[in-house]
Amino acid sequence: MSLKTIIRLQKLQLDEKRRVLAELHTLADRLRNEIEKVKQEIAHEQETVRDDFSVSFTYSNFAQAALERGRKLGESLGQVEAQINIATDEMAEAFQELKRYELAEEERLKRERDKQKRKEAAMLDETALVGFRRRQAEEEAAGG
């Protein structure tokens, strides 16, 4: 398998890791929004209880359910954040691996260019040497 193929595959893997990481960040944002909504609902219900004592009997059940929901959302957010950390590390590792392959390919291309330059220089040297010998032979034939 050529380095170009490996680089192409590595880029695809890196793109996939970026996509997964973006999805995890989106999920974390949604969970944060849900947690904020639960907090707002609790605050709203507390205001309602202060304004109307008759609903205070149901507030306890609501508050317990809302707090439990908030707790579960918090746990889910913690799990997603742990996954984000893992995905970030995996993406960084994939990026480093891609860079290693790209640097290896650049080095290979540089060696090829240097080899071609040496080949061209040798051809020019040979052409110059042939021309020099021909002129020397012509001068000896003319002079001699």
UniProtKB/TrEMBL annotation:
* GO BP, one annotated term: bacterial-type flagellum-dependent cell motility
**Entry keyword annotation includes Coiled coil:** yes
Q: Identify the domain of life.
A: Bacteria
InterPro entries named among the record's database cross-references:
Flagell_FliJ (IPR012823)
Keyword vocabulary terms for this entry: Cell projection, Cilium, Coiled coil, Flagellum, Plasmid
Entry GO terms, CC = bacterial-type flagellum
Say yes or no: keyword Coiled coil present.
yes
Coiled-coil region(s): 14-48, 77-126
Q: What is this protein called?
A: Flagellar FliJ family protein
Pfam families to which the protein is assigned, alphabetical: FliJ (PF02050)
